[in-house]
Amino acid sequence: MALSWMRFTAVYEAGDAWLATFSAHPTLVRTAWNSDMLAPITSGARWLVAEAALMTTLKAINRIREEYRGPVLADSEVDKAWWLVPIDAAKDLADVPQLTVQVPGRPLHVPPAGGHLETRMWLQRPDGSGLLTDPAVLAAAFGPDGYRHAAEAS
Question: In the beta sheet, which residues pair with residue 48?
Fold first, then answer.
């Protein structure tokens, strides 16, 4: 049991470290989390934020196999979810009416990778790998037929 806990702790720490690198002041991010506060992480350096309604996201997330999902943050109080997508995803997601790609530089207020704060939680936690949801996969998941990996399509 202790090995499982240590493995998750390592993944959460890697996710926290990855998130903190997107702040001009990573120490302040850690201070916010240690004080049970959301930390502002700025998009635009290596990823953008695609915003969707929470219920729509819950349907779409189940259409994407876990190994293809990047971090997804949710807030039940405002009924929103935010997908972290590659920096060039805006053009690929422009025709998906359920998604709004936020402008670069807009802060996203996040809990640490291993937890939740207030009404925000990670539906897909950042693991430190830098994996982001491919915009083509995301667009297909929000479409009427959902996304199916090539091996599943036949």
Answer: 85
Q: Whole-prediction pTM value?
A: 0.88
Tell how strand 116-117 and strand 120-124 pair up: antiparallel
Q: Which H or E run includes 26?
A: helix 26-34
Q: What is the DSSP letter of 127?
A: -
> Could you tell me which of 43, 52, 12 has the C-alpha nearest to residue 132?
43
Angle between helices 54-61 and 135-142 (to 10 degrees): 110
**Using one digit for the tens of pLDDT, what is the confidence trace for 119-134?**
999 999 999 999 999 9
Q: Residue 51 in contact with residue 130, Cβ under 8 Å?
A: no
Q: Identify whether the C-beta of residue 143 lies closer than 8 Å to the C-beta of residue 95.
A: no
Ramachandran bin of 147, using left for φ above 0, alpha for ψ from -120 to 50, beta for the remaining angles: beta
Instruction: Mention every residue, 6+ apart, whose C-beta is less than 8 A from residue 60.
Output: 52, 98, 138, 141, 142, 146
Calpha distance 25→6 (Å, rounded): 27
Place of tokens 């670069």: 104
Here the tokens at position 41 are 């992480």
